[in-house]
User: Fold this.
Amino acid sequence: MKRSIRLSSVIGLCAAATLGLSLLAADHKEAPLINEDPSADLNDVYAFPAPNNPGRFVLALTVNPFTPATASLAANFSANVRYRFLIDHNNDGRPDRDIEIKFSPVAGGAQTASFKLPDGSGFAGGVTLPTTNPVPNTPIIIQGPAGVIAFAGQTDDPFFFDSIGFNRFRRGVGGFSGRDAFAGFNVSTICIELPVSMLGDADGVFQVWGATERQRVTLRRGSRRELEVSTGPFEQIERTGVPAVSTVLIPGPKKDSFNVGTPDRDALDYGGDIVNSLRGLGTNDANINILASVAVPDTLKVNLAQPAGFPNGRRLEDDVIDTLLFFIFNQTAVSDGANSNDRPFLATFPYFAPPHQPPP
Ligand SMILES: [Ca+2]
Ligand SMILES: [Ca+2]
Ligand SMILES: [Ca+2]
Ligand SMILES: [Ca+2]
Assistant:
C-alpha cells in the first residue's frame, strides 16, 4: 500500500529527529514548569472573524489541559493568574493592544470573570462553572460595552490530533490510527467576541497570541517571627500563538525559557533551533521558509482581507496538524486521520462544544 510506505518513510525521519518530546500536542503540558501549573497552562489560542456577524472578531484561549469529565470540578480558572490576549499591529512582535481577564476565587458556588478591553474599559460576569450533573450548566453569556460578549467556563477541548499515533510512529512501533487523543477531555475556555474596530488595528493585518501571568509573591519572617507577605508585579509564565511550535520545534531544555520569552525575540533566540528541528524532520529549505513565516514569531497572523482559517488566524474547526504536516513533509499530504473534533461546535457564541460530563 502506497500510504503505509509513505508513513514508514516518515517514521524514519521522525525517529532520526532529536525532538525530546514526551507528548506532542498543540501546547498542552509542553514544558516542565508549566506542566505543574494546569490553570496557567495554555493549550491553544484561536482568532477568527465571527461567523454570521460581519465586523466582529473572536479571540479564545484554553487552559487546564486533559481535564477528564470525572475530575471537572477540580479544574477552574485561578484567582492568582492573569490571562491575556496580546495584539501586535505593526509586526514588531510587541503588543500594541491587550485584553486582560482575571477571576475571583470560587466561593459559594460562583466565580466572577473580570475583563479589561483594549480601550481600558472593563466589565465582569459569572463563570459557567463545571458540574458533575449529566447535563452541563448552560453557558453564561457575559455582556460588555459596545456589544462585546464573553464566556468563561469549561468546554470540550476543540483540538484534535492522533498524538499517540504520532509518538508510536516516531518510535517506529506503529503509525496513525486516526484516533483523536484529545477526544472526551475538557478544557477551561475564555472566549470573547468584539467589534474589530476595538482591536485598534487600522489595516486589518495583525498578530495575536495568548499569555498567562502570576504575580510575584515574597514571604518572609518579620523581627517577631511574624509572616510578612508582599506582592510584586505580574510576570509571564507561559505564552503561545501557533499550535505545536513549542512542543515540536523548540528543544526540550529551552521550552521553559521559551514560555517566558516574547515574540519580538523569537527569530533571534529560537530561529536557529526551529530551522534545526525542521531539518531533523527532513523539511527542505523552501518549506522551512514557509513554516518560518507561520511560526516565527510565535503569533497567529491575521489578514482580514483573506479567507479565514489557519494559518490565517485559527478557527476551532481548522485541521492545524494536517496543515503543519503538509509543509513539514515538503508538501506531501500526510494526515494523522483525526480530522475533526469529537463534538460538533455551536453555530453561535461561544462556539465551543459543551463539556463532556461523567456518565449518569
Ligand atoms: Ca501550554
Ligand atoms: Ca507592535
Ligand atoms: Ca474535543
Ligand atoms: Ca488531522
